[in-house]
User: Which sequence fits this backbone?
């Protein structure tokens, strides 16, 4: 098996100079298997012959093997910490008459990470009297297509969901359907292709000499086997300034021979979780609730600068009367978040959820105001209790959907393999970038994908597939198409062709009445933007298994 996979990877390396041979064998096998199923070849040997004979398949294979996970301010806590870290680095440099700051983002994908660093630096430099500091931020990746996107600097609205209030309007300009990064930020970042497994150099050639103050290499090492992890880590270590910082992914640690060469830094706050065994589920916007927990965590970290515990408890509760303001009778998930911080004076408690109210010099006062807004949009309620020198407790309630714990979606199987390998999904969206994102996610799960940009095209393509005896397993349709036929109209036409069609409505507006009552309009499910691979997979599995 290993020799057959290596033969394929060797051919990719010879033809395109992409070297994936250092990746984990199990990951390679799983991803190449997806192309084997999609191309309807029966073995790795057959697939190799298919790859050699079909030049376009090389792009499909590289797309599957290349891992592009990115986002602005991805993992907000890390960037909250980095704001202070970089501020201190700059102050130290200025005291020593050093006016150069060098940062390398290795495996930068489509550029959100290095641009995030540029935005942070821009904010820091506003408060620095001596702004004559030279900034070099270099983003590298093996994927040329991703680097083209990075250099263009055009992003969809959902990519900006973790950016704090005010930064979007300052650093992005809305042009048609894209948010374009400002020229000021673009000038701070350069991009180039660089393979971390390149044995000819230990730093990107564009950086000339390395000596980086900070190197980002998050969630890259986990894809390499041990031999190549050691090789890459040696490269990262050699690229750093003697007092430099290496930022790894949460699940990544230095390889054994380098553990004593690094000192771990970060938050001293320790989370303590507790939840009911059969916790109910709640129908929530995943991104917004993640923002709630992120804001609470940041708030607790700032309240406990010397460390402490953050207690998070989730419970099933039944509200039988009107004892809790703002809640109707029914089932709720009660979330309690308690820190061991300095506490909040009583006179300020009734103001903590007010927009722009803050007791911090660097805060904007929108974190808890955002939490309050999100909880109430979910028809929940939030309360605060605090005691000076003992800490603060936030308690909020979210309506429960039913009394069953959320179950993992069951795989759809044929005799030998998951059915999804034999299922093709039709995706309709007027925005090319979204079509590409959904295609990447669906292929990662294992589906085949076709895309169209309009409702009428979707109807025509669905009819054609039915006539040819190759019907689509499901259709994911954007609800609104400016100046054209959207999902609401197109689903009626598709159901006339095939009354059993499994059509999923896609929208960025969870409050839309069509989304809320999708079944009344003929849809079988909902995919709310921004997409995540887990929720998209779960939705598709549920719809495909439905009668």
Assistant:
């Amino acid at each position: 098996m290993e020799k057959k996979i290596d033969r394929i990877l060797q051919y990719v390396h010879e033809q395109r100079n992409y070297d994936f041979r250092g990746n984990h064998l199990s990951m390679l096998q799983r991803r190449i298997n997806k192309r084997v199923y999609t191309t309807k070849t029966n073995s790795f040997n057959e697939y190799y012959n298919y790859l050699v004979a079909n030049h376009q398949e090389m792009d499909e294979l590289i797309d599957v093997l290349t891992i592009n996970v990115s986002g602005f301010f991805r993992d907000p806590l890390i960037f909250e910490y980095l704001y202070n870290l970089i501020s201190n680095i700059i102050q130290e440099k200025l005291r020593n008459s050093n006016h150069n700051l060098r940062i390398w983002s290795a495996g930068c994908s489509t550029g959100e990470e290095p641009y995030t660093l540029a935005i942070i630096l821009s904010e820091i430099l506003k408060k620095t009297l001596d702004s004559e500091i030279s900034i070099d931020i270099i983003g590298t990746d093996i994927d040329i297509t991703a680097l083209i996107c990075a250099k263009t600097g055009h992003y969809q609205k959902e990519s900006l969901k973790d950016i704090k209030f005010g930064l979007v309007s300052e650093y992005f300009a809305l042009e048609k359907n894209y948010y374009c990064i400002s020229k000021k930020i673009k000038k701070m970042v350069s991009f180039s292709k660089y393979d971390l497994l390149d044995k000819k150099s230990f730093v990107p050639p564009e950086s000339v000499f390395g000596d980086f103050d900070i190197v980002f290499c998050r969630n890259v090492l986990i894809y390499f086997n041990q031999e190549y992890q050691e090789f890459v880590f040696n490269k990262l270590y050699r690229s750093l300034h003697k007092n430099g910082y290496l930022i790894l992914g949460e699940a990544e640690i230095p390889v054994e021979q380098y553990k004593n060469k690094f000192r771990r830094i970060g938050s001293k706050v320790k989370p303590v979780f507790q939840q009911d065994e059969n916790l109910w589920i709640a129908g929530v916007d995943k991104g917004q609730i993640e923002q709630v927990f992120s804001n609470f965590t940041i708030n607790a970290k700032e309240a406990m600068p010397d460390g402490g515990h953050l207690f998070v408890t989730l419970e099933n509760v039944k509200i039988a009367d009107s004892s809790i303001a703002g809640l109707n009778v029914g089932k709720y998930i009660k979330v309690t978040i308690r820190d061991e911080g300095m506490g909040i004076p009583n006179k300020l408690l009734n103001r903590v959820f007010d927009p722009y109210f803050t007791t911090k010099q660097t805060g904007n006062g929108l974190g808890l105001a955002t939490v309050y807004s999100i909880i109430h949009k979910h028809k929940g309620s939030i309360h605060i209790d605090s005691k000076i020198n003992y800490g603060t407790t936030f308690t909020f309630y979210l309506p429960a959907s039913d009394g069953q714990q959320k179950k993992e979606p069951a795989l759809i199987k044929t005799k030998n393999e998951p059915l999804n390998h034999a299922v093709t999904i039709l995706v309709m969206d007027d925005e090319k970038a979204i079509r590409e994102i959904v295609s990447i996610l669906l292929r990662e799960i294992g589906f085949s994908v076709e895309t169209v940009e309009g409702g009428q095209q979707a109807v025509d393509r669905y009819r054609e597939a039915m006539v040819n005896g190759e019907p689509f397993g499901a259709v994911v349709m954007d609800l609104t198409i400016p100046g054209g036929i959207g999902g609401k109209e197109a689903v009626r036409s598709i159901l006339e062709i095939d009354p059993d069609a499994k059509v999923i409505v896609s929208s960025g507006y969870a409050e839309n009445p069509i989304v809320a009552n999708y079944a009344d309009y003929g849809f079988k499910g909902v995919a709310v933007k921004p997409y995540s691979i887990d929720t998209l997979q779960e939705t598709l599995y549920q719809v495909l298994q439905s009668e």
Observations:
- The first strand starts at residue 100 and ends at 106.
- Residues 76-95 form the longest helix (20 residues).
